[in-house]
Amino acid sequence: MLPSISLSIDDRWLPKSVLSLRDYSLNKFSHDVIAGITVGLVALPLAMAFAIASGLTPQAGIYCAVVTGFLISALGGSTTQIGGPTGAFVVVVAGIVAAHGVDGLFMCTVMAGLLLVILGATGMGTAVKFIPRPVVIGFTNGIAVLIASTQIKDFFGLHMNKVPGEFWLRMRAVAADFPSWSPKATILAAGTVGVMLGCRAISNRIPGPIVAMLGATVAAFFLKFPVETVGTRFGGIPSGLPHLAIPHFRADLIHGLLGPAFTVAMLGAIESLMSAVVSDRMSNDRHNPNVELIGQGVANIVSPMFGGLPATGAIARTATSIRAGAKSPVAGIVHSLTLLCVLLFAAPLAGYIPMAALAGILMVVSYNMGEWREIPQLLKLTKTDISVWLVTFALTVFADLTVAVEAGMILAALLFIARVASTTTVSQVTDEYVEDGRVHILQDKDIPYYATIFRIHGPFLFGATEKVAAITEKMHQLPPIVIIRLRNMTAIDATGLFALEEVAKQLHATKRTLILCGAREQPFRVMQQAEFEEIVGRENICANVQEALRRAEAVFEKIEAKAVGAK
């Protein structure tokens, strides 16, 4: 094991790459190298596909992955986060390039990077929690639809001179040119999708994108399919290191880029912190959101200097890295160096990759990022939550991502005000009121050793849900039964309900029982609509704490009976 390092700087502002050195070892290094090489190979086709879909050259995506992948891992606040270009940026980047050119994109990326650094440095890394789940799902669904729509041309090998930027015009153009479709390009694209799905079905450890891309490239080359490739469209990918070049600064573009820069910064913050949360769950770690945003910001400031795109944490690549054995940020650094080696030694071979194969990969990526499984749950919630989701989704697809985020946030703010206002009540204290409250008070109740009680006080809406970490952060110390008292929880929304679902899943994963009790009218109605009893069990939703304690006793008796039977 390497010697521990004593640091005098406040740990709260140190990147995880530095903190991980305290207990780093050769065993961890070997795991990180294997994981880094694996995810580096997976990132190669994705980086090229995202760049092409954004209206840039494939090497721009690789340069971005190399530079930002290194910086996000070296400077970020997550132990196993993998950074690089992602699908979340494809639509907004394509719009910026179309409206302001490549110089405008580079300026926008730097501006977004500065915003991210400011957010992190001022301790605003947790501000992203104020974006409610219906808004996040709405524009994630919309982005997925838009990415898929941009890939129809290459998926079917259509002979289109230009792909319109607007969704409806794009669909009309696709329909008009569909008679020119290429069966061989479609076979390659469909085969790519099939191979990726097959790899996932066999094992999550198999790098589906790289297997599918290699298979399609070999098939197209030896079968001499007359399909468009990276070489025929872009002239291949140049070998060698990315060149440092300071972007041309244009003051006249600043005003027009403020909105897009804010959108890129918010998307980057949301995506990276969501990815960091996934990383935490898979690796039993806890990220530092402020340091993570500073690392993301620095990466986005530097990326344009090497001709790269905006970057953020990549959920799928992060999960791939962890499954491959990643133990520290070194895995992300090795992932970056792996891509650099491809640039130096294998760039000419990338010219043979069929565009149809990259389109197939992006079709799978767009489906995976769409959060489609969340929609049936959302439709069970209140009409206001559904309306926020629908408006955000529709504006993302048919208007503009910047407009969608702004409108979603305004709707969410109005919804927050309305829900908080609805929690205010005025009522007379009567003898019946006092008597009804006796079963809810804790003062005369004995809490047994095999159970613990947490309470939620006030509205449990977006912006407050991170406080539920008080339950999960010391999971291993909790007794077998956890009771959450909802008597003083005045309101709940989709984000709060999702947070409770996550708590329930984590407790169940550790063989613990969750019991909810005392829910008031609005929270109880929302939980009923969302069929929350399917997650915790109908018998574990109790009317008051007295009933919850009786239920806890019954559960513990069953636990003891099983233990005796096992002996």
Summarize the structure.
By secondary structure, the chain is mostly helical.
The number of distinct β-strands equals: 6
Count, helices: 24
Determine the oligomeric state from the structure: single chain
Number of structurally distinct domains: 3
Query: Largest sheet, described in full?
Result: 4 strands, parallel
Could you spell the SSE succession in H and E letters? Answer: HHHEHHHHHHHHHEHHHHHHHEHEHEHHEH
Silhouette: globular
Distance between the termini: 41 Å
Look at the helices and sheets and give the structural class. Answer: mainly alpha
| Overall helicity | 55-70%
Average residue-wise pLDDT? 85
What are the low-pLDDT stretches, counting only 5+ consecutive residues below 50?
1-8
How are the strands ordered across the major sheet?
3-4-5-6
**What Rg do the Cα atoms give?**
26 Å
Query: Which strand-content bin applies to the residues?
Result: under 5%
Overview of this protein structure:
With 567 residues, the chain is mainly alpha-helical. The chain has three domains: 25-371, no CATH class; 377-422; 432-566, STAS domain (Transcription Regulator spoIIAA). Helix content is 61%, strand content 4%. It has helices at 16-19, 26-53, 58-75, 90-121, 133-150, 152-156, 167-177, 183-202, 208-222, 230-234, 254-283, 289-302, 315-323, 330-345, 355-369, 374-378, 383-398, 401-422, 431-437, 469-472, 494-509, 521-529, 533-536, 545-566; strands at residues 83-84, 312-313, 451-455, 481-485, 513-517, 541-542. A four-stranded parallel β-sheet has the order 3-4-5-6. Strands 1-2 form a two-stranded antiparallel ribbon. β4 (481-485), α21 (494-509) and β5 form a beta-alpha-beta unit. α17 packs antiparallel against α18. The longest helix is centred in the first third of the chain and has 32 residues, at 90-121. The chain is globular.
